[in-house]
Amino acid sequence: MKLNSQKADEKSDYLKFADVPRSFMDQTGYTLADYSVAIGRITDENPMRFAIYASGVLVRKGNRHGILTAHHCVHYPGPELRFGSFDGDKLLLVLKRNNFLVLPPEVLVKRDLGIPKANEEPDLAFVEILPSSQLGSIKAIGSFCHLDNDPAKIKQEFGQIDMPFTVIGFPAAYHQTKHEGNVTRKIIKHMAFFYAIRPYCVCERDGWDYIEATNRYDEGHELPASFKGVSGGPAWGLKISKDKRNGQLILKDFSLIGIAISQIQITANELKVRAHFIKSIYDLGWQNLT
Fold first, then answer.
1. How confident is the model over 259-266, as a mean pLDDT?
2. Domain 36-146 is of which CATH architecture?
3. Closest C-alpha to 233, from 215, 249, 213
4. Burial of 15 by CB count in 10 Å (0-12 exposed, 13-18 middle, 19+ buried)?
């Protein structure tokens, strides 16, 4: 991956992911957890009976606040969630530091940004959270990424070949339910997976752009058996530099560059995670908003 120079007249350095300290990856994931949400659904009207099944990211577009996620995370073939009325579905969110919030359906509006055709791409949705006490609570805990920036500028600064990026979410493979007497504990794991943008990773179809993250299971990386549950999670472009004095890596800046939508098994040892890319999430998807 490409490291950013600390001075404008210096050449960029390159670093193998095998040489990136685990502590730096963990700290980066912790920093970006401000924007992450795990998405769940209340069952049987009991707030202690719920299932976490997807990921999302807190975003702001104009004066709208909400959750950007994959379309199938709130529509068939996922749960067909009903919002906007008192008899609709409640939405459970898990924010950083295991803060649980239950959002009533009357403060939610489902916005279809990219509707899949025959269960294929595009696959993008925005769950708008109307002004409410619940929105105030979320603002007090997490952070909203602004999507009013110029996508061309975002791509220039964070979407070039060899630049590092991370896909973040809540893999279902690590979800646990523990019963301790009358207490039931739900354990989920917020994880960040690191990659570099390669020429073959980026493509465009019918105007929608995509980026793919390749996972190798024969190279000793810590990877879940499946990326189920990461759908809807954010991909972040990173600017990383190295301190010349002590060699430590520094996260200089970051920007949202994608939303994970699917996993593709290539071989027994190779699995790709596909995400909508910059133009789709900053511009094209919002053109369908009514």
1. 94
2. Beta Barrel (2.40)
3. 213
4. middle
The residue type of 110 is: K
C-alpha–C-alpha distance, residues 69 and 37, integer Å: 10
Mean pLDDT of the chain: 89
Degrees to nearest 5, angle at CA 262 with 258 and 268: 125
Q: CATH 2.40.10: which residues of the chain? A: 17-34+148-282, 36-146
Asked if 84 contacts 109 with a C-beta cutoff of 8 angstroms, the reply is yes
Q: Do residues 52 and 188 make contact, with C-beta atoms less than 8 angstroms apart?
A: yes
- Number of Cβ within 10 Å of residue 59's Cβ equals 21
Please name which of 216, 262, 215, 260 lies closest in space to residue 236, comparing C-alpha atoms.
260
Is the backbone peptide bond immediately before 79 cis, with ω within 30 degrees of 0? Answer: no
- pTM, two decimals, is 0.92
Q: Identify the CATH class of 17-34+148-282.
A: mainly beta
Q: What percent of the chain has pLDDT over 70?
A: 92
What does the alpha-carbon distance between residue 98 and residue 275 come to, in Å, rounded to a whole number? Answer: 26
pLDDT score at 239: 94
Least confident of 48-52, 163-167, 224-228: 48-52
Distance CA 199, CA 211 (A): 10
pLDDT digits (tens, 9 = 90+) for 89-144: 899 999 988 888 999 999 999 999 999 987 678 999 999 999 999 999 999 999 99
Q: Count each helix (H run) and each strand (E run) in the chain, helices first.
A: 4, 17
Peptide bond just before 224 cis, omega within 30 deg: no
Helices (H), 118-230: 133-141, 151-158
Spell out where 134-248 has E strands. 145-146, 164-169, 176-180, 183-187, 191-196, 202-205, 208-216, 234-242
What does the pLDDT average to over 257-270?
94
